[in-house]
Amino acid sequence: MWRPLSRVFASVETERNLKAAAVLRGLCSAASASACSGFSMEPKLYRPSPKVRGMTSLDKEAFTQTITVPALRVPNGVLHSVVKSLKKAAIQRPGVPRVVQDKEESCDFRLVLLDPHRISSPSSFSEAESEALRSFGVIQELQQYELRLTYHNLKSEEVLEAVLPQGQDVPSGFSRVGHIAHMNLREHQLPYKNLIGQVIMDKNPGVTCVVNKTNMIDSTYRNFKMEMLAGEENMVAKVKENGVTYEFDFSCVYWNPRLSTEHQRVVQLVERGDTVFDVFAGVGPFAVPAARSGANVLANDLNPESHRWLQHNCKLNKVEKKVRTFNLDGRAFIQGPVKQELPALLKGKNNVHIVMNLPALALEFLDAFRGLLQQEPSCDENLPIVHCYGFSKEDNPETDVVERASGRLGFPLKDRCSVHFVRNVAPNKDMMCVSFTLPKEVLFSGDHEQTELLSEEPAPKRQKCEEANEST
Ligand SMILES: C[S@@+](CC[C@H](N)C(=O)[O-])C[C@H]1O[C@@H](n2cnc3c(N)ncnc32)[C@H](O)[C@@H]1O
User: Fold this and answer.
1) Which atom of ligand 1 has the smallest separation from the CA of 389?
2) Three-state DSSP state, 282
3) Any binding-site annotation on 274?
4) Of all protein residues, whose CA lies closest to atom 1 belonging to ligand 1?
5) 289 and 424 belong to one structural domain
6) CA distances from 189 to 28, 45, 173, 181 (A)
7) I want to staple 132 with a disulfide (CB 3.0 to 4.6 A). Which of 85, 101, 390, 419 is the partner?
8) Structural domain tally of the chain?
9) Is residue 246 in a domain?
10) Is 94 in the same domain as 201?
């Protein structure tokens, strides 16, 4: 049964509970009289004091406050079962215990703290919860408990909502790369950047470094310019993706944790004995797992730092004998190592995959395959399968990437390819993967010299990427 507040106040004598009663009266005085007939709570009870608004340097003490929460006195003998039955009604706060000592009363009882947003009176318990309480012989009478909440009991969004100007967005999230959290702060959040960094670090175990990526992505190597917000400046990250460990300096190579499913999808197409040419390999998220699956891999990246970490990751994962690495422009890689290896591979039985993950530009590299080989083999060819990535802002991104790929190849791919939606990278911008068997009409076309004439756009030579910060 719910005991009216006046009776609760009259029946408790301890200083602690009297204080609790005062807090509750304070809460009630701000509310309407009718609201006080139950356990009235402000809707946002955990909101820190307004004095923290506008804080730019984190003062954790300023977030300390005492609030009153409902509690249920429960005999020790049934405590475990009651807590289990009240899972949804019990308080759930980082660092706040659900069960506390009922110091002033018999030590045969404990207090189970309840979520004040969920339980305002005994009638707030669900039918099942009430039934469970009855069966355990627990009196459904709410007590008030004074709870000291500190900075450590608040969630990061609660801290940031209280600090940043009212009505403006708080940072909604971050990407995690090993111990590094990287954020994309908006203009109005910049005055609070160091506080934001500190809060993200405090609230996310394992994060010891928080960086903000400034707007531009480096045009050639697809790595971000970054600014330290909080923590130690150690950019060498260690991450695990699909069971494979990678290490790299995040400040000078490309790494995107959102591509793990795509890496896995493509690697699953590769079988033992296959050959994989990875034209834009980065630090190895296609190359290393493909080699671990038993493929022979030739992996290339133009960025000397990516190339260095690619080699490192091959050693780290003990596949250095299965992977040959190159530090070339993608076009030179296709017209060099790929061209050299292909004739023998075409005669073989194992599949050959060519992976081209540089979505801003890769489609434009496809003309490098035109007339790549001179002599058409007499027997049935084992033609390579190309997986080429592209961004699209068109209403029909599938058609768009197929048309662009066809234009670059000088050969219609429609009905001869499959298109996979990888992810949405920005509003109205999708990352797609078009996969197709490289047509022999392209590979042996003999029009290598005409490449520039046939394609609608000029062949890219380390072009600037048109878009910033969207390839994450
Ligand atoms: C989008 S990242 C993809 C890396 C990796 N394949 C992955 O999935 O995470 C593209 C990579 O291409 C490299 N790159 C950029 N331009 C290049 C070029 N012209 N030739 C070869 N590699 C290039 C960049 O250094 C970067 O590592």
Assistant:
1) 1
2) coil
3) no
4) 358
5) yes
6) 35, 25, 13, 16
7) 85
8) 3
9) no
10) no
